[in-house]
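Escalated from tier 1: iron/sulfur cluster holo job.
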Amino acid sequence: MQVTWNPNTCCHAGVCVKSLPEVFKVEDGEFVIDPSKASEKEVENVVSQCPSGALKIEEQ
Ligand code: SF4
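Tier 2 regenerated the structure:
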């Protein structure tokens, strides 16, 4: 599973980083997503809560 993030769509509500900080985090000023740090269900749950639709799941 891969999660993509559209910086132009993101409204920086922070739902993702607050809900799953091990998966969605800012490192050296870059937003990084590591879906392997949580279960697919947890990641899907947070992606569905993103208010702007900036996060998208891509099955590989
Ligand atoms: S939840 Fe969505 S809108 Fe909010 S910070 Fe994360 S990607 Fe951006």
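Residues 5, 10-16, 50-52, 54-55 surround iron/sulfur cluster (CB under 6 Å).
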